[in-house]
Amino acid sequence: MPIQLSKNDIRAIYHQGEDAVVSLVEMLMAKINFLEAEIEKLKAQLTKDSHNSSKPPSSDYHRPKPKSQRKKSSKHKGGQKGHKGHTLKQVETPDHIVVHPLTGKGACGCNLEDARFLRYEKRQVFDIPPVEMEVTEHLGEVKQCNCGICHTAQFAPGVTAPVQYGERIHATMVYLSTYQLLPQKRTTEVMADLFDVHLSEGTLNTSITHAYKRLAETEEAIKDALVNAPVIHADETGIYIGGKRLWEHTCGTDSFTYYYFHQGRGFDAIEAGKILVKYAGRVVHDGWPSYFKFDILHALCNAHHRRELVFIAEQFRQQWASDMITLLCHIKTVVDRARGADCHQLDPRTLNRYEKIYDKIITRGYDTNPVPDTKKKRKKRGRKKQTPPRNLLDRLHIYKDETLAFMYDFNVPFDNNTSGRDLRMTKVKQKISGCFRSEKGARAFCRIRGFISTLMKQGHNVMESLINCFDHSCTQSNLLPLMK
Fold first, then answer.
1. What is the three-class DSSP state of 250?
2. DSSP label at 139?
3. Pairing mode, if any, of strands 231-241 and 282-285?
4. Structure confidence at residue 70 (pLDDT)
5. 370/213 Cα distance (integer angstroms)
């Protein structure tokens, strides 16, 4: 509530004596200090954006000027030497040939029809032919034996109805919806416009459900591969299902991706994924406290640290934050160079030197951000609130080994960008299509998208693999190219 004192009120306090005036000034100074702290807090919130925090770029109120964390290299722009290009090249046997005869008179005035033929100059145009739905009729012989019983030949696997769509149409629908992230209505429109195949959203949902059920064993194989991986990435992001906020979790490597959703993001939610409860390796994450409740090795994402350090350097003008950014990036460069030279670790002297520099920066940070005064009586229970610099310092100090895990073990990456890339497509899906209508649809998306992400990481053709989901002649092993 605002403080309202009239001139008469102030005079009355003055006439009460020195103690009354001192009490009034102390009360006003406490109010001013509180308001100044609130103003600083609001300023800090306004200055947070995608370049100095984990907020997505779409939430930036004032779009900041691009401040890329990447350093300039000596490489030229464009494709590098040895890069495989995709430029069109003429083929030896084109599908169609159109001859353009040379007639009339040339610029010289001579009749070109009587001129001597020398050669053809070739130019080739690559285009997509008109696509028409192809109908294959299956005829099953019906015979009657001498006993009078009629027998019908067995149709091919999957041919079960008088009229039905083939596996390529089903796979294309799932491809457009789950891989290209088109809303269901637009998926049916694309099928009609490009292929003259008129489908309902119900048919699309039936195809998605079929792929979801067929990939159950594949998903279990992906989870087994993650449990046995030496290093995995884990993260979570908010999703909306039926208008309610839930959480999508991911565990992945450079070769495998697994998604699932849960009502929360804490210990129970992570345990529900059934990965970390059986895992014995190292997990790269962003420092969410629930991960530390699992008996595993940890590595913290330094991309998150760098953004927080940028915020502290810019907002609080603290040099130790800039020094820590420089140190972490320098160690990353040294590690990358050593890895490129087929080294498996840094020598102990180098490790010791970097550890000492790290500790000195943390010490300077604590000197700049001393422990708050604890003599004053606390009004609230629980952990005492600290400033952002102090919170980050505690994390970097307590989890020093986890922060520098990439320096000790070359198998550990500098950041958790693998999980960030895996989750990004879910955010794109929601931006395009909005929330998921039901948990059933979200569960199907997670499983199919995990399969697709795994295929992409391993360089497999997504469309051909989805066709195998609907080809009844394919065994389960055809859906597990990732295991080969």
1. strand
2. -
3. parallel
4. 61
5. 57
